[in-house]
Design a protein that fits this description.
- By secondary structure, this protein is of the alpha/beta class.
- Helices cover 36% and strands 15% of the residues.
- The chain is built from 11 helices and 12 strands.
- It has helices at 10-26, 59-63, 77-80, 86-95, 109-116, 152-164, 191-200, 210-217, 231-234, 263-273, 281-298, and strands at 2-5, 31-34, 51-53, 67-70, 125-129, 136-138, 141-143, 168-171, 184-185, 203-207, 222-225, 241-243.
Length: 300
């Protein structure tokens, strides 16, 4: 009997789902240990009997006689070389295979309706996640040392462009940023509410963070910006329109590898790639035009 520890951010947990389902199918008594994001797995009938939150009482007794493995896809050599994506890296680390199966998330009809009733019924809903989890506000600016977030001016330009085009914009972020004033946001949303928000939307726009993985799991069309991370590792280039300052149609070609194998690599990657999501005014106008065009084409 084994106990698999899967940790990290929400996007990592989502990308691990197909590999975990495959492993549990062959080994039904497996324990899956998660922390903080455990509720994102609720409703998954293939894993419901295996999920154990690390804050569970008597966890020690549940795992002490099992083989314990901590799963770390970032140390997979194929992943490091951009040959496989995060979903495949989890699969190889857990099962020894490299299937690319899109994860499925589950929400109830009640969760869907509870969130949906907050928005106008006569407008298409565009969920927008402009900032990554490490973004912070200083005065009237938002900065992200990891280079994964859009700047405030571009964020506000996208919001106003979409609003003027008649779309209902909902910001996918439960933190307070002054540039969101007057916007509908996910502030105060639980993890389950956040899933239901994207499940209800017509189109997703975001950076390389959890929102894109949720949107892909619900088969929502969208646009995703890649700054300090590679679409080959973390994105869905065959599904979303992907944008960077270096290549506005496909993906980004980084000046320094972004995989966080060490503290120094992490710092140097942030330093070198910090300007990857800085766009000229002409590029911003072109990006907004293409986003509106893509929304109209894919949400008929």
């Amino acid at each position: 009997m084994e106990s698999l520890i899967v940790n990290g951010g929400l996007g990592r947990i989502i990308c691990a789902i197909p590999a975990l389902e495959k492993f549990v199918q062959a080994r039904p008594n497996t324990n899956i240990l998660t922390s903080f994001w455990t509720s994102v797995l609720w409703g998954n009938k293939k894993l419901v009997n295996n999920i154990i939150d690390v804050d569970t009482k008597d966890l020690y007794l549940k795992v002490k006689d099992t083989k314990i493995r901590e799963i770390e896809p970032y140390f997979n050599s194929k992943f490091l070389n951009g040959q496989i994506n995060l979903i495949q890296a989890f699969d190889e680390e857990i099962n020894g295979t490299t299937d690319n199966i899109i994860p499925k998330l589950h929400v109830t009809s009640f969760e869907l309706l509870k969130v949906r009733q907050q928005f106008p019924k006569d407008k298409k809903i565009v969920v927008f996640q402009p900032f990554g989890s490490t973004a912070v506000q200083f005065d009237d600016q938002v900065v992200d040392e990891t280079g994964r977030s859009l700047d405030v001016n571009f964020t506000q330009h996208i919001i106003s462009t979409l609003t003027n085009a008649g779309f209902q914009v909902v910001i996918f972020d439960n933190r307070y940023f002054s540039c969101f004033e007057g916007c509908m946001t996910a502030n105060g949303y639980s993890i389950r509410d956040s899933l239901a928000l994207i499940a209800n939307c017509d189109y997703f726009i975001g950076v390389d963070s959890s929102g894109q993985h949720i949107a892909r799991s619900f088969h929502k069309p969208g646009t995703v910006f890649f700054g300090s991370t590679r679409v080959e590792n973390f994105g869905y280039a065959d599904w979303f329109m992907t944008i960077s300052s270096i290549d506005l149609e496909v993906s980004t070609h980084l000046r320094y590898p972004p995989i966080r194998l060490s503290g120094f690599d992490y710092w140097l990657s942030n330093l070198t790639n910090s300007s990857n999501l800085v766009f000229t005014n002409e590029q911003i106008e072109n990006i907004c035009y293409n986003i509106i065009k893509d929304i109209k084409q894919k949400t008929i």
